[in-house]
């Protein structure tokens, strides 16, 4: 851990170690152990490319060697902005071999977000594709570097694909060097039993070190960084894998963005690899792509967000795909409408598992043997016996089961402080270490949680978290807009859609014009409002704040 964040007390740490939650093993060692135990088993599939556990272990050594040649080492932060591809996994484990820290950026992030991540993390490198979804990430990196200037931390840009004309952009293939010592293994090597202590090839990392930085949805504009240690994040993945009954026969299909916490460790990519299973990477989330991979690779488990569910159901009932291997479909990232939850299982012939969690830690899953009513009407219960839950009123007092209140939580994999965000940490946590989630929930006597809403001024559009204040600030830079409020309203497809209420001197710009303006300002595309509504003025509450509830009610009123 670093001096820039709070962590668990020695008493708590000892308790989590004694309970077996924290096993004192780095991700570098976990991969080495996987190669020792499952060397010839297929670990990773991307299109026609396949890696056994031994291959993946050796490739991590090669990538680590190339990164080490760039001067990257223990504790260095590296922004990884890659689409769903095997390269994300290879880079991630290569960084772990050095004790370096990947920062999980989303493919849709643009100059504003990536520049912010580089500055706050003090990132020494970024890893990006050449182009993805018709967007040139090399040009993005040129803008980020120019904005940072010569005194910034960013020293290297690694490009998967064509690095373009930039002499100092490093092609990913150039990183894949042969291991510099006998400790590096090739795919055909005879693998020794792992040492019980830390792997010497993880750059000397300690299991209590920060292993990665995830991103918060955030309500203060740009995302905050969430430090996750080797100990706590490995437990996160392992606990979810145990609830989901993962084993060496598991074939997990990564449909959602691979850097998303849900996809990567709930149980996702990491949980599957820790169980000895196989990860299949889907290049896009369409049901046609997904079902093709289910048929071809014998996929047993995948994860979706609610907006994808009706598309997957429609494709399943209208076509003749062989989905016999698919056993479980997780749905999370936003609340799944109960009607969709009841239809999904029969449509795909699967067990549905609802997931409610946060990159900050706490993960709730419905159990595979839960009654249908709990599966369809709740968002699960905590995966760890040491997850501590409080549901409190506005004065911080616990409320009875069944009563809605804010969710507070702490436990063996829930952070105690955001990275380099001391001012925010003073209000985000209680004095005794509970994280104030901002989610409003009801707890049932079974321990299952029902998500009711959020306290935070944040819109959850199909799992994409949009901080209203960030978009509002950028709306005000449009020459026609004098005041603006971004409000989330219910939507059958997305869970919520965003509506921008704007005050203008003349005619209001269209939603398309606003989207183009925000894109020019460097915001990610999903942050553009779905609808723009011109109003004569913004209503205020008694304390002078914009009354967003009144705006939403007026918009929804027939």
UniProtKB/TrEMBL annotation:
InterPro entries: AMP-bd_C, AMP-bd_C_sf, AMP-binding_CS, AMP-dep_synth/lig_dom, ATP-dep_AMP-bd_enzyme. Residues 470-545 form the AMP-binding enzyme C-terminal domain. Residues 183-208 are annotated as: Disordered. Gene3D superfamilies: 3.30.300.30, 3.40.50.980, Luciferase, Domain 3. Pfam families: AMP-binding, AMP-binding_C. Residues 32-419 form the AMP-dependent synthetase/ligase domain. It comes from the Bacteria. This is (2,3-dihydroxybenzoyl)adenylate synthase.
């Amino acid at each position: 851990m670093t001096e820039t964040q709070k962590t668990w007390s020695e008493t708590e740490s000892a308790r989590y170690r004694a309970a077996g939650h924290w096993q004192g093993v780095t991700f570098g060692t976990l991969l080495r152990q996987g190669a020792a135990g499952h060397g010839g088993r297929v670990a990773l599939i991307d299109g026609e490319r396949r890696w056994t556990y031994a291959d993946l272990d050796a490739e991590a050594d090669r990538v680590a060697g190339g990164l080490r040649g760039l001067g990257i080492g223990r504790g260095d932060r590296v922004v990884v902005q890659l689409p769903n591809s095997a390269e994300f996994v290879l880079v991630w484990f290569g960084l772990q071999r050095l004790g370096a820290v990947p920062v999980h950026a989303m493919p849709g992030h643009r100059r504003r977000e990536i520049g912010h991540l580089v500055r706050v993390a003090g990132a020494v490198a970024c890893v990006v594709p050449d182009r993805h979804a018709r967007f040139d990430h090399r040009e993005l990196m040129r803008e980020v570097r120019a904005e940072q200037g010569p005194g910034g931390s960013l020293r290297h840009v690694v490009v998967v694909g064509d690095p373009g004309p930039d002499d100092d952009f490093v092609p990913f293939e150039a990183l894949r060097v042969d291991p510099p010592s006998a400790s590096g293994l090739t795919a055909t090597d005879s693998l020794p039993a792992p040492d019980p202590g830390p792997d010497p090839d993880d750059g000397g990392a300690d299991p209590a070190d920060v292993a990665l930085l995830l991103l918060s949805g955030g309500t203060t504009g740009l995302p905050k960084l969430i430090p996750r240690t080797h100990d706590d994040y490995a437990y996160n993945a392992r606990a979810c894998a145990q609830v989901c009954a993962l084993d060496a026969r598991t074939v997990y299909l990564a449909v959602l963005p691979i850097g998303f916490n849900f996809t990567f460790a709930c149980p996702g990519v990491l949980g599957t690899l820790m169980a000895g299973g196989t990860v299949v990477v889907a290049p896009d989330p369409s049901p046609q792509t997904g079902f093709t991979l289910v048929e071809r690779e014998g996929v047993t488990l995948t994860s979706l967000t609610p907006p994808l569910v009706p598309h997957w159901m429609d494709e399943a009932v209208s076509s003749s795909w062989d989905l016999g291997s698919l056993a479980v479909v997780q749905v999370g990232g936003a609340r799944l409408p109960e009607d969709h939850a009841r239809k999904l299982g029969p449509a795909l012939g699967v067990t549905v598992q609802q997931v409610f969690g946060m990159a900050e830690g706490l993960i709730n899953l419905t159990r595979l043997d839960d009654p249908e009513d709990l599966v369809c009407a709740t968002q699960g219960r905590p995966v760890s016996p040491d997850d501590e839950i409080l549901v409190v009123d506005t004065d911080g007092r616990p409320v009875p089961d069944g009563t809605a209140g804010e969710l507070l939580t702490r436990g063996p994999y829930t952070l105690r402080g955001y990275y380099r965000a001391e001012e925010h940490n003073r209000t985000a946590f209680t004095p005794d270490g509970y994280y104030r989630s901002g989610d409003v929930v009801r707890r049932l006597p079974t321990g299952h949680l029902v998500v009711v809403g959020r306290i935070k001024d944040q819109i959850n559009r199909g799992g994409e978290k949009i901080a209203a204040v960030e978009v509002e600030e950028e709306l005000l830079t449009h020459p026609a807009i004098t005041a603006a409020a971004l409000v989330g309203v219910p939507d059958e497809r997305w869970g919520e859609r965003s509506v921008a209420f704007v005050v203008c001197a003349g005619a209001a710009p269209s939603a398309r014009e606003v989207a183009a303006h925000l894109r020019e300002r460097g915001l990610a595309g999903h942050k553009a409002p779905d609808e723009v509504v011109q109003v004569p003025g913004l209503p205020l509450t008694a304390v002078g704040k914009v009354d967003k509830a009144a705006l939403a009610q007026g918009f929804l009123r027939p």
